[in-house]
Amino acid sequence: MDKLIKEQINFLRTHDISLELTYNAAGQGKAVYHNIMKSQGKIIAYNVTP
Fold first, then answer.
1. CA 42, CA 33: separation in Å to the nearest integer?
2. Which among 47, 49, 50 is positioned nearest to 23, based on CA atoms?
3. Which domain of life does the UniProt lineage start with (predicted)?
4. Residue 1 reports pLDDT greater than 60
5. Whole-angstrom distance between the N-terminal and C-terminal Cα of the chain?
């Protein structure tokens, strides 16, 4: 899954969260995507384990 599914997009819209604030962290460890997200101002990672 490379993209957000319809339910995830609806959740973001319902909570007035821009898609620009999301980050696709598929295949990355938490330490890696956390640092990237912080530097890019992203607040939600997807394609990660809970």
1. 10
2. 47
3. Bacteria
4. no
5. 15
